[in-house]
């Protein structure tokens, strides 16, 4: 269980806002959603069969840990990521700190044919109904606190609605909690929410003993093809990348940024073969 002292102030602010934020469906007393989800594991398998690194590319206009903001149309950004080879998309719906919205999520999901993850800070069951998505994020460290629901209960409630669930952890203990709750898709965040520092060694250290039956996703700090190769070598079934693709400060080409990362393994193989024949 987390405490207020072991989370960075910026992250504490996000969690406090998540607790206080009511969804439109909550305010209006709307019915709970029902989702016919596109399969995330199947999307990863299709990417691998096509020689691509399975990648969840993230539509993230801004964040507390990046400089600048992208104000491009989110649908155009998402379509560019898919054109660049992304196996799936992550869409921020947190409005106050990341500039996201459920409207953007719904528009993107209608425009693409890959699985779409709703990236937000869900802390109670009613927030599951804010929008339809293929995959929902639950963060171990943000749950089982006062004012939040239990991880296992939320996981079950999300699945009842048809969502696939990505359960995110940062420590071995967090991964154990995710697995004990029944998670089948686990994300290991290389960013420490206590210090907001990134260590790519986190994934290997935390995920090394996880069963092969669990889909493992490496998150945060993946900026280069070497980073992508390192995470894959450490056992990541897929990568989740936001800032390096969005490149908010530089307004980078998201299609080219995506293509560079998904081609990391095929490019490395081609380079090795070239060296062998020289």
Automatic annotation (TrEMBL):
Superkingdom of the organism of origin: Archaea
Q: Name one GO molecular function term.
A: phosphoribosylanthranilate isomerase activity
User: Which Pfam family, any one, appears in the UniProt record?
Assistant: IGPS
Q: What is this protein called?
A: Indole-3-glycerol phosphate synthase
Q: Which reaction does it catalyse?
A: 1-(2-carboxyphenylamino)-1-deoxy-D-ribulose 5-phosphate + H(+) = (1S,2R)-1-C-(indol-3-yl)glycerol 3-phosphate + CO2 + H2O
Listed HAMAP family: IGPS_A
User: CDD domains from the entry?
Assistant: IGPS
Recorded E.C. number(s)? 4.1.1.48
Task: Extract the PANTHER family matched here.
Answer: INDOLE-3-GLYCEROL-PHOSPHATE SYNTHASE, TRYPTOPHAN BIOSYNTHESIS PROTEIN
Q: Which family does it belong to?
A: Belongs to the TrpC family.
Q: Which GO terms describe its biological process?
A: L-tryptophan biosynthetic process
Q: Which UniProt keywords apply?
A: Amino-acid biosynthesis, Aromatic amino acid biosynthesis, Decarboxylase, Lyase, Tryptophan biosynthesis
Enumerate the InterPro entries for this protein: Aldolase_TIM, Indglycph_syn_Halo_TrpC, Indole-3-glycerol_P_synth, Indole-3-glycerol_P_synth_dom, RibuloseP-bd_barrel
Q: In which pathway does it act?
A: Amino-acid biosynthesis; L-tryptophan biosynthesis; L-tryptophan from chorismate: step 4/5
Identify the taxonomic lineage of the organism of origin: Archaea, Methanobacteriati, Methanobacteriota, Stenosarchaea group, Halobacteria
Where is the Indole-3-glycerol phosphate synthase domain positioned along the sequence? 5-260
């Amino acid at each position: 269980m987390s405490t207020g002292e072991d989370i960075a102030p910026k992250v504490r602010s996000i969690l406090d806002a998540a607790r206080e934020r009511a969804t439109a469906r909550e305010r209006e007393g709307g019915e709970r959603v029902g989702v016919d989800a596109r399969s995330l594991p199947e999307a990863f398998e299709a990417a691998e069969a096509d020689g691509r690194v399975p990648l969840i590319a993230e539509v993230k206009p801004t964040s507390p840990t990046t400089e600048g903001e992208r104000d491009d149309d989110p649908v155009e950004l998402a379509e560019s990521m898919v054109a660049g080879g992304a196996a799936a998309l992550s869409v921020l719906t947190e409005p106050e700190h990341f500039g996201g919205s459920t409207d953007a999520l719904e528009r993107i999901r209608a425009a693409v044919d890959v699985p779409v993850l709703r990236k937000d800070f869900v802390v109670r069951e009613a927030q599951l109904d804010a929008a339809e998505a293929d995959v929902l994020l639950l963060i171990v460290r943000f749950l089982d606190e006062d004012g939040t629901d239990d991880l296992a209960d939320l996981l079950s409630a999300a699945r009842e609605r048809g969502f696939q669930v990505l359960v995110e952890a940062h420590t071995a203990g967090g991964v154990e909690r995710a697995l004990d709750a029944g998670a089948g898709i686990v994300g290991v965040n290389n960013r420490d929410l206590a210090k907001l520092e990134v260590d790519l060694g986190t994934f290997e250290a935390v995920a090394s003993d996880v069963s092969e039956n669990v889909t493992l996703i490496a998150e945060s700090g993946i900026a280069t093809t070497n980073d992508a190769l390192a995470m894959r070598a450490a056992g990541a079934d897929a990568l989740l990348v936001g800032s390096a693709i969005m490149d908010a400060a530089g307004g980078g080409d998201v299609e080219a940024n995506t293509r560079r990362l998904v081609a990391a393994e095929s490019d490395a193989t081609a380079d090795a073969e070239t060296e062998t024949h020289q």
